[in-house]
Amino acid sequence: MSQAVAPGTFTAEEMMAVAAARRLADGVTCFVGIGAPSRAANLARQTHAPGCVLIYESGTIGAKPRRLPLSIGDGELAETADAVVSVPEIFSYWLQGGRIDVGFLGAAQIDRFGNLNSTVIGDYAHPAARLPGGGGAPEIAACCRETVVMLAQSPRTFVERLDFRSTVGYGDGPGDRERLGLTGEGVTAVISDLGVLEPDPGSSELVLSSLHPGVEAEQACAATGWELRVAAELSAAPPPTAAELQALRAFAAADEEDGR
Fold first, then answer.
1. What residues are labeled active site?
2. Concatenated DSSP letters for 207-238?
3. pLDDT at 245
4. Is the CB of residue 233 less than 8 Å from the CB of residue 211?
5. What is the DSSP-derived secondary structure letter of residue 166?
6. Parallel, antiparallel or unpaired: strands 195-199 and 187-191
7. In the chain, what is the straight-line distance between the N-terminal and C-terminal CA atoms, in Å?
8. For labelling alongside 53, which of 12, 27, 62, 121 has CA 20 to 30 A away?
9. Alpha carbons within 13 A on the beta-carbon side of 230
10. How far is CA 112 from CA 70, 189, 228, 252, in A?
11. Which residue has the higher pLDDT, 118 or 253?
């Protein structure tokens, strides 16, 4: 087994990718978002979960990109996939049919109940920034058996109130998913650059359950826009292994070779 590397030899972003990758078990089907989720999912496939089936919104099933895709329309996904189907088939048969285990998403904002904003920052009619939008994320979070979210933790991203609710996590609390007819379990983990948050079984509110190496609970609380609850038994994530870092950095090297 590859040994953990020393503190200071990896970045917070690398630790976030590694922690997220470790959430994926070998053999699961994973609906992957572009950006940080794609980085983590492909890291899992390159290391401990070679049988993980990666599905992208453009209709690629079993994609095995040699470099990280720039978008769901990146030709690398279709060229390396086991199969390519239409977008309606991906959503109606695979996703809404309950055939996908894990949805891997990013966002611009998240609230205490795991709801996501990927639409606007500020007032909807006169926003400070207009974002790409929810895309397939609302359906992914609604129908995948579970959803994992990745985003850097700060008071600007972990907010008391979303500027716009693009994607439902647990709505306004317990019972909302059932009331809305959402079939998946919901957000089971939020991976940040500081640690991991998981929903409380009773309240559905996100609770800090694990910290990355070198991070204190006070840092995570200060980087959260609501009064963050901390688990009574707060765990510490092991640092990345040399093998994990090597695989992760190989993607960055491939991007540099392509001039990206």
1. 57
2. EEEEE-TT--HHHHHHT-SS--EEEEEEEEPP
3. 95
4. no
5. -
6. antiparallel
7. 33
8. 12
9. 14
10. 30, 12, 8, 32
11. 118
What are the tokens at 32?
């992957």
Q: How big is the chain, counted in residues?
A: 260
Task: Produce one character per residue of 97-116: b if its CB has 16 or more CB atoms within 10 Å, e if not.
Answer: eeebbbbbbbbbbbbbbbbb
Residue 253 pLDDT:
79
The pLDDT of residue 252 is 80
Does residue 3 or residue 241 have the better pLDDT? 241
Which residue, 138, 132, 146, is CA-closest to 190?
146
**pLDDT score at 87:** 95
User: How far is residue 186's CA from residue 171's CA, in Å, rounded to a whole number?
Assistant: 10
- Cα 186–chain centre separation: 12
Angstrom distance (rounded) from CA 91 to CA 82 = 17
Q: Answer with the residue of higher pLDDT: 175 or 256.
A: 175
156 DSSP assignment: T
1: confidence class by pLDDT, cuts 50, 70, 90: very low
Digit-coded pLDDT (tens) for 80-138:
999 999 999 999 999 999 999 999 999 999 999 999 999 999 999 999 999 999 999 99
Q: What angle do CA 152, 177, 230 make, to 5 degrees?
A: 40
79's CB contacts (< 8 A; 6+ apart) are none
What is d(CA 86, CA 91) in angstroms, rounded to the nearest whole number? 9
In whole angstroms, give the CA distance from residue 234 to residue 210: 5
CB–CB of 241/2 below 8 Å?
A: yes
DSSP string for residues in 35-97: THHHHHHHHHHHTT-TT-EEE-TTSEES---SS--SSTT-HHHHHH-SEE--HHHIIIIIITT
User: Considering the entire predicted model, what is its pTM?
Assistant: 0.93
